[in-house]
UniProtKB/TrEMBL annotation:
<dbReference type="GO" id="GO:0005829">
    <property type="term" value="C:cytosol"/>
</dbReference>
<comment type="pathway">
    <text>Amino-acid biosynthesis; L-valine biosynthesis; L-valine from pyruvate: step 4/4.</text>
</comment>
<dbReference type="Pfam" id="PF01063">
    <property type="entry name" value="Aminotran_4"/>
</dbReference>
<comment type="pathway">
    <text>Amino-acid biosynthesis; L-leucine biosynthesis; L-leucine from 3-methyl-2-oxobutanoate: step 4/4.</text>
</comment>
<dbReference type="InterPro" id="IPR018300">
    <property type="entry name" value="Aminotrans_IV_CS"/>
</dbReference>
<dbReference type="InterPro" id="IPR043131">
    <property type="entry name" value="BCAT-like_N"/>
</dbReference>
<comment type="function">
    <text>Acts on leucine, isoleucine and valine.</text>
</comment>
<dbReference type="InterPro" id="IPR050571">
    <property type="entry name" value="Class-IV_PLP-Dep_Aminotrnsfr"/>
</dbReference>
<keyword id="KW-0028">Amino-acid biosynthesis</keyword>
<dbReference type="InterPro" id="IPR005785">
    <property type="entry name" value="B_amino_transI"/>
</dbReference>
<dbReference type="InterPro" id="IPR043132">
    <property type="entry name" value="BCAT-like_C"/>
</dbReference>
<keyword id="KW-0663">Pyridoxal phosphate</keyword>
<dbReference type="InterPro" id="IPR001544">
    <property type="entry name" value="Aminotrans_IV"/>
</dbReference>
<dbReference type="GO" id="GO:0052656">
    <property type="term" value="F:L-isoleucine-2-oxoglutarate transaminase activity"/>
</dbReference>
<dbReference type="InterPro" id="IPR036038">
    <property type="entry name" value="Aminotransferase-like"/>
</dbReference>
<dbReference type="GO" id="GO:0009097">
    <property type="term" value="P:isoleucine biosynthetic process"/>
</dbReference>
<dbReference type="GO" id="GO:0009098">
    <property type="term" value="P:L-leucine biosynthetic process"/>
</dbReference>
Length: 306
C-alpha cells in the first residue's frame, strides 16, 4: 500500500503518497485510540462522485467527539479533502479512508500533549466480494467472539481499536471456511458482521438489530430509506441467531460490502440458499443510487469535480 504513486491529504496539504509517513511512536499505533471512516466514490455520468459523504464526515466527527479528540479541521475542510483525494489521484471510482489519530508528542496513557492529526487517502479498491457472492450470497458463522459491550468501548464511534474484535472474528470465520462472521452482543443477541450491519426478512417484514452495540451504518440507513420508499415494514429490535436461521432472506450492508446476501449461517441454509427477491431489489436500488442512476437519490452523491 505504501509504495505507489499518488497523493495523500495529511493535515491540510497534499503529500506525495510515499512521503505520507508518521513516526513509530505515534500514540494511536500503540493504544488504538483514533477513529476513521470507510467511504466510497463511484463512477457516474458526472465523473467520480462520493456516496453520502456528508453522513460519513458527520460520523467521523461524532466518533472524534466520543473519543474526546478535538478535530483540528472543519467538516467543510474534511469534505474538500475527500474530493481532492479522489480528484488528485485521477480516480474514477475509489475507496476513501479518512482517519483521525494522535501524534507522537508523548507516550503512555496519560499523555496530554498529543496533536490530533487527520489524513485522507483514496485508492482504487473494487468490491471485495465477487459478482458470484453478490448473487449467490456468502457463508457466515456465528463468532466465538462477542461484539463490544456498550460500556467497554464506545460502539457509536468507528474507533481504530474496536477493529481488533472484528479482525479476530473475521479471521476465525475465514479459517473455518466461511466468508464472514456474525457477532452477537454480550447478551447473546445478533449485533453485526465484522464490518457490516445485518438485515433479515421474515413474512414480508424487514428486521435489523437496534443501534445498541452495532455501528450506525450509513448503508443500513440507506436500506431503511429504501424500505420506507417501498412501504416495506421495518422493525429495529433484538434478533436471535436462530431467527436468522429461519429467515426468508438475510443480507449484510456496509460501504465496503455494499448489499451482500447471506446464504448460510452456521451450516443452516437461509431461505432459498441464494439472493432472495427483496435483497435483489434493494441491492439493485443501492447500485443505481451509488452510480447516479436514480434521480431521486442524486442528492446523496457529491461529484468530486464540483
Ligand atoms: N458495522 C461495522 C463494525 C463496520 O465497520 C461497518 C463499516 N463501516 C458497518 C457496520 C457498516 O457501516 P457503513 O454502512 O456506514 O459502511
Amino acid at each position: 500500500m505504501a509504495d505507489r504513486d499518488g497523493f495523500i491529504w495529511m493535515d491540510g496539504e497534499m503529500v506525495p503518497w510515499r512521503e505520507a509517513k508518521t513516526h513509530v511512536l505515534t500514540h494511536t499505533l500503540h493504544y488504538g485510540l483514533g477513529c476513521f471512516e470507510g467511504v466510497r466514490a463511484y463512477s457516474t455520468e458526472k465523473g467520480a462522485a462520493i456516496f453520502r459523504m456528508k453522513e460519513h464526515t458527520d460520523r467521523l466527527c461524532r466518533s472524534a467527539h466520543i473519543l474526546n479528540m478535538k478535530m483540528p479541521f472543519s467538516k467543510d475542510e474534511i469534505n474538500a479533502a475527500q474530493c481532492a483525494a479522489v480528484r488528485d489521484n485521477n480516480l474514477d471510482e475509489a475507496y476513501l479512508r479518512p482517519m483521525v489519530f494522535l501524534g507522537s508528542e508523548g507516550m503512555g496513557l496519560r499523555a496530554d500533549n498529543l496533536k490530533v492529526h487527520v489524513m485522507v487517502a483514496a485508492w482504487s479498491w473494487p468490491s471485495y466480494m465477487s459478482p458470484e457472492a453478490k448473487e449467490m450470497g456468502i457463508k457466515v458463522r456465528t463468532s466465538s467472539y462477542t461484539r463490544h459491550h456498550v460500556n467497554i468501548t464506545m460502539c457509536k464511534a468507528k474507533a481504530n481499536g474496536n477493529y481488533i474484535n472484528s479482525m479476530l472474528a473475521l479471521n476465525e470465520a475465514i479459517a473455518s471456511g466461511c466468508e464472514e462472521a456474525l457477532l452477537l452482543d454480550n447478551e447473546g443477541y445478533v449485533a453485526e458482521g465484522s464490518g457490516e450491519n445485518i438485515f433479515i426478512l421474515r413474512d414480508g417484514v424487514l428486521h435489523t438489530p437496534e443501534l445498541t452495540s452495532c455501528l450506525e451504518g450509513i448503508t443500513r440507513q440507506t436500506i431503511l430509506d429504501f424500505a420506507k420508499e417501498l412501504n416495506i415494514p421495518v422493525k429495529e429490535r433484538r434478533i436471535t441467531r436462530d431467527e436468522v436461521y429461519i429467515a426468508d432472506e438475510a443480507f449484510f450492508t456496509g460501504t465496503a460490502a455494499e448489499v451482500l446476501p447471506i446464504r448460510e449461517l452456521d451450516g443452516r441454509v437461509i431461505g432459498a440458499g441464494k439472493r432472495g427477491p427483496l435483497t435483489e431489489k434493494l441491492q439493485g436500488m443501492y447500485f443505481d443510487a451509488v452510480k447516479g442512476k436514480s434521480a431521486e437519490h442524486s442528492h446523496w452523491l457529491t461529484p468530486v469535480n464540483g
